[in-house]
């Protein structure tokens, strides 16, 4: 094994939002490549089924909410008791809404609790997972690369080009972009790297349920390639970030050069 490229094989990962979409593709790729993974997602998610479809020795589903200290701690305890350690944390859990700040036609103001909910799940939830995972990863031995762990978060191109109705979603994703560097700086003393991926449009259940024609239209908004991203292309970048140690404290757009219109 070279000092430069770290094979993911043998690593233990925690993937939030792992039962669907980008998180699920990440779980599948990591398991396929020899990792053992704790899949964390809401109790109402497909987590149990997805875990069953994979090797049960290498993938365990932990139901819970990323905003809960108890739920996330319980998932980390499972990583410890079942797999003995934690090397990689991927934050894919997230929610979105489409509500105008003030809709003049409908005379409807954006409910504050809906704004707060998106910030709570996407920002506080991501941070809750990061802080507790970092504590656990800091107990790892320094390996041959003198590294204890890697944390990867999921923002969105909406952090930069939020569309109509995306005030809450864009604010939450902008916060994830904004905290990437300071957390990387905080965790440098623990030899843990922190990166964020800002995806464009990917074909997850969210978009997958749309008619083929609409998906094609959405895909064509990207200059090249003019299609929706495959969730495994997101997972592939997760793997590259784990493997390439010079990546730290940065946000990578994964978007086929799309710039969202208003
Ligand atoms: N699909 C895209 O085109 C796209 C683009 C940009 C950013 N993203 C971001 O990528 C991430 C994954 O998106 P996706 O398309 O795979 O969505 P998805 O809805 O398919 O998956 C998200 C998963 O997160 C889980 N989740 C939601 N709230 C949770 C909570 N409080 N605790 C634990 N789990 C929770 C859901 O149950 C779901 O399984 C999200 O953060 C999303 O904002 C997606």
From TrEMBL:
- Which GO terms of the molecular function aspect are on file? (3S)-3-hydroxyacyl-CoA dehydrogenase (NAD+) activity; 3-hydroxy-2-methylbutyryl-CoA dehydrogenase activity; androstan-3-alpha,17-beta-diol dehydrogenase (NAD+) activity; cholate 7-alpha-dehydrogenase (NAD+) activity; estradiol 17-beta-dehydrogenase [NAD(P)+] activity; testosterone dehydrogenase (NAD+) activity
The highest taxon in the source lineage is Eukaryota
List the protein's name: 3-hydroxyacyl-CoA dehydrogenase type-2
Keywords on record: Oxidoreductase
Q: State whether it acts alone or in a complex, and with which partners, per the record.
A: Homotetramer. Component of mitochondrial ribonuclease P, a complex composed of TRMT10C/MRPP1, HSD17B10/MRPP2 and PRORP/MRPP3. Interacts with TRMT10C/MRPP1; forming the MRPP1-MRPP2 subcomplex of the mitochondrial ribonuclease P complex.
InterPro entries according to UniProt: NAD(P)-bd_dom_sf (IPR036291), Sc_DH/Rdtase_CS (IPR020904), SDR_fam (IPR002347)
Give GO BP annotations, semicolon-separated.
androgen metabolic process; estrogen metabolic process; fatty acid metabolic process
Q: Where are the transmembrane segments?
A: none
Which SUPFAM superfamilies would you find in this protein's record? NAD(P)-binding Rossmann-fold domains (SSF51735)
- Quickly give the catalysed reaction: 5alpha-androstane-3alpha,17beta-diol + NAD(+) = 17beta-hydroxy-5alpha-androstan-3-one + NADH + H(+); cortisone + NAD(+) = 17alpha-hydroxypregn-4-en-3,11,20-trione-21-al + NADH + H(+); (3S)-3-hydroxybutanoyl-CoA + NAD(+) = acetoacetyl-CoA + NADH + H(+); (3S)-hydroxyoctanoyl-CoA + NAD(+) = 3-oxooctanoyl-CoA + NADH + H(+)
Similarity-based family: Belongs to the short-chain dehydrogenases/reductases (SDR) family.
Q: Which Pfam families match?
A: adh_short (PF00106)
Question: Which GO cellular component term is one of those annotated?
Answer: mitochondrion
What pathway annotation does it carry? Lipid metabolism; bile acid biosynthesis; Amino-acid degradation; L-isoleucine degradation
Q: What is its EC number?
A: 1.1.1.159, 1.1.1.178, 1.1.1.239, 1.1.1.53
